Amino acid sequence: MSHVQHELAQKFPQKTDLIHKLKTTNAHFSRLFDDYHELNRRIHRIEARGTDRSRELMKELKLERIRLLDELTAMLDG
Fold first, then answer.
1. Would you say 72 and 36 are in contact if contact means Cβ atoms under 8 Å apart?
2. Torsion region of 65: left, alpha or beta (phi above 0 gives left; psi -120 to 50 gives alpha)
3. Angle, vertex CA 23, rays to CA 21 and CA 28, nearest 5
4. How far apart are the two ends of the chain, measured CA to CA in Å?
5. Could you list the residue range(s) of the whole structural domain that residue 34 is in?
6. What is the arithmetic mean of pLDDT over 13-26?
7. What is the pLDDT of residues 50-62, one digit of tens each?
8. 5 within some domain
9. Under a CB-based contact definition with an 8 Å cutoff, are residues 28 and 39 in contact?
10. What SS3 string covers 31-63?
């Protein structure tokens, strides 16, 4: 698969150890991480294929990605 932007480890390369620790010890973080990852990949697939999706749908997906990222960032900044 091609390079996917917005991956959490890319956004926080200095926090990869903390990301791993939280994924394995914090169920809420792990669930948010998985949701973010799935949504990010979905957005990437839609954009890469040039699939005809409504602007409204893409806006909703991207806003949800931002919401998840904000929550994950808050947990990382602890």
1. yes
2. alpha
3. 125
4. 33
5. 15-77
6. 96
7. 766 788 899 999 9
8. no
9. no
10. HHHHHHHHHHHHHHHHHHHCCCCCHHHHHHHHH
Longest pairwise C-alpha distance within the chain: 39
Amino acid at 43: I
pTM of the complete model: 0.86
The string of pLDDT tens digits covering residues 26-51 is 999 999 999 999 999 999 888 888 76
Question: Could you give the number of structural domains in the chain?
Answer: 1
Instruction: Confirm if 41 and 65 have CB atoms less than 8 A apart.
Output: no
In-domain check, residue 7: no
Question: What percent of the chain clears pLDDT 70, i.e. is strictly above it?
Answer: 91
